[in-house]
Amino acid sequence: MATKYHARIYVTLRSSVLDPAGTAVESGLKQMGYTEVESVRIGKYIEMQLTANNEDEAKQHLDEMCDRLLANTVIENYCFELSELATV
Amino acid sequence: MATKYHARIYVTLRSSVLDPAGTAVESGLKQMGYTEVESVRIGKYIEMQLTANNEDEAKQHLDEMCDRLLANTVIENYCFELSELATV
User: Where would one find coiled-coil regions in this protein (chains A, B) (predicted)?
Assistant: First the structure.
């Protein structure tokens, strides 16, 4: 019996890597008057549904997908959260 | 006395809006063998620090920033989480 999961994946630039998009947004916000803002960093947020036999299998497949396609682990970190949707 | 907050902002496409990038990632994952994946949607994940007098003020400013710059509310939804870092 397989289970359907909802996954939320966060891909962020490693802290040692410059983030020009984040810097641009920060400077835009400051020019708009939000001078209280600092350290803006922009990453990716990926949502998906996947079917697996159990949570461990789902986590293992997500790890592989992140390593192979979703994140560039040379410059990015990733983490994810899983929630169970239904048994199918 | 002001407080420094860490904000995590999630910007996602509205469900009625097509997500060609998500579709491309989904089809890439399927071609790699992850046929159990569906409904891939790609959004933005923004982290920032901001200083405010209290949590309500921080939330109000974040709402404004999202409405005015960070999200295009015609096609995107946003939500955020705030956590307190320090009193400064």
Answer: none
